[in-house]
Write a structure and sequence with these properties.
Blueprint: H1 9-18, H2 26-46, E1 56-60, E2 66-68, H3 69-85, E3 88-93, E4 100-101, H4 105-108, E5 112-120, E6 131-139, H5 150-153, E7 162-168, E8 172-177, E9 182-188, E10 193-198, E11 209-211, H6 222-232, E12 243-244, H7 250-260, E13 262-266, H8 279-292, E14 296-298, E15 319-322, H9 324-338
Parallel strand pairs: 3-5, 11-12, 11-13
Antiparallel strand pairs: 1-2, 3-4, 5-6, 6-7, 7-8, 8-9, 9-10, 13-15, 14-15
Helix pairs in contact: 1-2, 2-3, 6-9
The structure holds 2,5-anhydro-1,6-di-O-phosphono-D-glucitol and manganese (II) ion (2 copies).
């Protein structure tokens, strides 16, 4: 008989926990709290056109970008959910210059820290285009029972215990990994549950989509320019020309390429000499998911994103992520043409 049973996020994380008999269930509880916060943000995102939530919150974050109201709202929702969990001792968020330390008794005993981009793709809020949330979880390094410290957050991505994203798109989805593959859930608003929809996400080794902001073309490194031309050339054997897709929300661009096969690039430019995307709460979690799905993530210069040792909370890195063979090809061009510069 066909098995039509719906598995919810909470059921799946509990099953996952039973695979680790000595685990205390903390990570499972944490993922459930993230799921709850995601539902609250989902509701607000869906109401964005109806309530007075659009527009600027009249404040700027450390990078001088204007914060939209929904960014601030999402930041608050996730912060409160994390503090309520009692498992998290501190947060690094795109929306806060410094780390947020939870110093209530319960949180001081929390074993984990969270890095988060509460609202990714914020320029798309006002125009009804997909946006997201990206998160990354580490074991703290500072002693349990004390306040979280900066060193807890400046760990390489290889140390991530779990990571994931939520995409508020044509449907709301959560994709996460704890290092045992990537799993996807689709939100069913009628029953208020994230339902298992992508049991084991595997990204194609080859793809036909390239995603990059071509408005920056003349400021790209030569290797990227040559790779873009390669994507546009005719070649039946390799199925070129490829197709170009760029939403301007990392989560949405990455998610589409993950499912269909493709490459996302945010290289260095003159105005962003280190790239634009942030290592801790954008690149590392996305790179972890990509690798767990069989893809690849580098800085375009042969360095695996997950092995970069962070030095700064809001550090930026050039980002090349997606189907393995496409990232390898882009790297080849970067290597060949950087030597000419
Ligand atoms: P955020 O909204 O969290 O600041 O992130 C925006 C990021 C990312 O989502 C997206 O891929 C990129 O900025 C787009 O940048 P450009 O507009 O420069 O292409
Ligand atoms: Mn972002
Ligand atoms: Mn953001």
């Amino acid at each position: 008989m066909e098995d039509n049973r719906v598995l919810t996020l909470n059921e799946v994380v509990i099953q996952m926990q039973s695979a680790f008999p000595y685990a205390k269930g903390e990570l499972s509880r944490l993922l459930m709290h993230i799921g709850l916060a995601a539902k609250i943000v989902h509701n607000q995102v869906n109401k964005a056109g109806l309530v007075n939530i659009l527009g600027d919150a009249k404040s700027t974050n450390i990078q001088g970008e204007s914060q939209q109201k929904l960014d601030v709202y999402a930041d608050n929702v996730f912060r409160k959910a994390m503090q309520a969990s009692g498992i998290i001792c501190g947060i690094a968020s795109e929306e806060n210059d410094e780390i947020i330390i939870f110093d209530d008794d319960l949180s001081l005993d929390g074993n984990y820290v969270l890095c988060i981009d509460p609202l990714d793709g914020s320029s798309n809020i006002d125009v009804n285009v997909s946006i997201g949330t990206i998160f990354s979880i580490y074991h703290r390094l500072s002693p349990n029972g004390t306040k979280a410290q900066l060193c807890d957050f400046l760990q390489p991505g290889t140390e991530q215990v779990a990571a994931g994203y939520i995409i508020y798109g044509s449907s709301t989805m959560m994709v996460y990994t704890t290092g045992l593959g990537a799993t996807g859930f689709t939100y069913d608003a009628a029953i208020g549950e994230f339902c298992l929809s992508n049991d084991h996400v595997v990204t194609p080794e080859d793809g036909r989509i390239y995603s990059v902001n071509e408005g920056n073309y003349i400021r790209f490194p030569r290797g990227v320019k040559r790779y873009i031309k390669y994507c546009q050339e005719d070649d039946k054997a390799t199925n070129r020309p490829y197709t170009s897709r760029y939403i301007g929300s990392l989560v949405a661009d990455f998610h589409r390429n993950l499912i269909k096969g493709g490459i996302y690039m945010y290289p260095t430019t003159a105005s962003n000499p280190n790239g634009k995307l942030r290592l801790l709460y954008e690149c590392n979690p996305i790179a972890f998911i990509a690798e767990q799905a069989g893809g690849k993530a580098t800085d375009g210069n042969g360095n695996r994103i997950l092995e970069i040792k962070p030095t700064d909370l809001h550090q930026r890195v050039p980002f090349f992520v997606g189907s393995k063979n496409m990232v390898d090809k882009a790297e080849e061009f970067m290597k060949e043409f950087s030597e000419e510069e």
